[in-house]
Each structure stands twice: as structure tokens, then as C-alpha cells.
Amino acid sequence: MTTTRPSSNNSHLAGEYFVAAELYKRGFSVAMTLGNAKAIDLFAEKDLRTVNVQVKAISLRKNVGWPILKKKVFRKVLYVFVCLNADDHPPTFFIATGQEVRPRVREYATRGIINYGSLNSGQFQDRWDKIEAALRAPGARAV
Predict the structure, then answer these.
(1) CATH of the domain spanning 8-133
(2) Shortest CA distance to 94 belongs to which of 85, 31, 86?
(3) How do residues 75-92 score in pLDDT, each as one tens digit?
(4) Would you list the domain boundaries of the chain?
(5) What is the model's pTM?
(6) What percent of the residues of the chain are helix, what percent strand, and what percent coil, each to the nearest 5?
(7) Integer angstrom CA distances of residue 48 from 33, 135, 141
């Protein structure tokens, strides 16, 4: 049986919901933002402190990576790159700080991309602890 993959917009929304679910599972309260051209997708709050989260999602591993431009990478934002995977496999998550993302972005004449392979390591995969660390960092926002 062949299944059709959702459009890229639906993939992004699915990615946001999966990330929100993972954050809720870890004790965060999560607020989602609305719209297509936004710098922040989620606000995650715990112990009256918040962290900004940007989600990038692709549907399958066969995709080369996630579209992103260096000028859209911000220092005080956490990035969660999601590969939704096939229907019978759970999503894969890669978590990185803005400082970690920026040097990995490859820009071309018409687009920018962060390659799957540049994040496929223990330094990034399932590193939800980076979000906890961002809450404790100097300059983290208190509610």
C-alpha cells in the first residue's frame, strides 16, 4: 500500500505539534504562534522562565535537509529540526542553538539548507537538555 506524504506546510505543522508534545512530556507549558512567516514557532515555559523555539520539519530522510537562511538564525532561539519519517516510525529530533546552527547552514544562489548529515550525531539528536539549559542561561526571560 502506497501512502502519500503531506504538503510541506502540513509537514511543518506536524513537526510543530510533535515538538510541542515532546516539550509537554518533559514538563513544559507550550504556546504555539500562528502564521507562515514567523521567527518563533513555540514558546516553552517552565518554572516561570521561557525559551523561544523555531521548528523546521521535513517529511522523510530522503530529503537532503531543512531549508533555512543564515540571516534567519538567531542567537537566543533554540532550533528543533524534525524528520517526520515513515508512518510506522516515530519522528527524529535534532536540537541545536543558534550558534550551532549558523555555521552549518549552506547558502546557494537561490536557497539555504542545513544538511541532515550535519546534525545526525549525538551532539544534536534528542538533545532536549539544551532547552533546559537555555532556561538557566543568563539572559533567559522570566515570566
Answers:
(1) 3.40.1350.10
(2) 85
(3) 999 999 999 998 889 999
(4) 8-133
(5) 0.89
(6) 30, 30, 40
(7) 19, 9, 9
